[in-house]
């Protein structure tokens, strides 16, 4: 493999990356089971896959499965702060993939890497936040002339794709992997809940017990975060714009406030909305001394960083790893974690491998389904077939040695009859 076929920080890190990937693999039994089948049946033979994903050990194991299935894989990072340089090196040196990812790259390099993985004229896309699809449509739709379809694994990306579809510009079938039951319940709820707190703790070493943690957004990710914060002894305040989600938070025992009121009482703030400017200048002006700001949404737009810069008379970078301190004119200090980017991947290691096992098992089986069924699919945002979600849950239960009941013939008849 020549230099032009990859761009990673240091191939010498590959042995450490292999150890990291193999450690994650131990906690990914469903994906390992799919890998064994793919290696035998080769359902992806001859297909080129371009991926824009977080370059982590868990992602590496997904890509290894696709490679076992016969695919040629090219990967660009979906977030500069989440890239594990040792994992990127291992993917190139040990697993023979073309990877364009280095931790901490600038925006121009990020965009160039996306264009590079698209230049192979992919048959299938794996996207994270719709960046790959957006890049293709803004730089030349001919890059996708061979593309059968793809998968999107984030809430933000699915929102973007649905808007593209509504405006008639999405010319591909894109599967909303994010919207499956296993992804929403386990990845978004349990994964984001645990890994977000992990990131905040690593960056700040703050004690959450007895402090007020504000969760902006009460979707699946917000619910998981609120549950874990309450379990650690925090007083949890929820902010919402959706009356149904706000009512759900109230019924679960959380305090629900507008952000204008929450800003005055919170000690730690975490945005999990998928929208921009959730914490704005008027909120920043009311924060307590020492308030911590973190984002667990996809892009770094949920906290108004320009307003924070304007308010600060001094910025102290890296007061701790992944924590910058902004000093205001009256002496108050505000701590921003991971530059306002994804805190669970910037300051920690993302979701536990056991959680990503389910999400990436769904992803692998959906890629296989797309390869087989693409000629029957229409452009737009599609749901993952229910049988794929069910199969992944069954694989996980088998790995956990958990057994469940099966419907009897009489029960199946009863459920399928209107006059029983």
TrEMBL record:
UniProt keyword annotations, A-Z: Cytoplasm, Hydrolase, NAD, One-carbon metabolism
CC cofactor note: Binds 1 NAD(+) per subunit.
Compartment(s) of residence: Cytoplasm
EC numbers on record: 3.13.2.1
UniProt-annotated binding residues for substrate: 56, 128, 183, 187
Known catalytic reactions: S-adenosyl-L-homocysteine + H2O = L-homocysteine + adenosine
Pfam families: AdoHcyase, AdoHcyase_NAD
Binding site for NAD(+): 154-156, 188, 217-222, 240, 275, 296-298, 344
Associated pathway: Amino-acid biosynthesis; L-homocysteine biosynthesis; L-homocysteine from S-adenosyl-L-homocysteine: step 1/1
Gene3D superfamilies reported in the protein's UniProt record: Adenosylhomocysteinase-like, NAD(P)-binding Rossmann-like Domain
Residue ranges that the Swiss-Prot or TrEMBL entry lists as coiled coil: none
Keyword Ion transport: no
UniProt-listed InterPro entries: Adenosylhomocyst_ase-like_sf, Adenosylhomocysteinase-like, Ado_hCys_hydrolase_NAD-bd, NAD(P)-bd_dom_sf, S-Ado-L-homoCys_hydrolase_CS
Enzyme class: hydrolase
Domain S-adenosyl-L-homocysteine hydrolase NAD binding: 188-350
Highest taxon, organism lineage: Bacteria
Needed cofactors: NAD(+)
Family: Belongs to the adenosylhomocysteinase family.
Function per UniProt: May play a key role in the regulation of the intracellular concentration of adenosylhomocysteine.
HAMAP family attached to this UniProt entry: AdoHcyase
NCBIfam families linked: ahcY, PRK05476.2-3
Name assigned to this protein: Adenosylhomocysteinase
Organism: Salinactinospora qingdaonensis
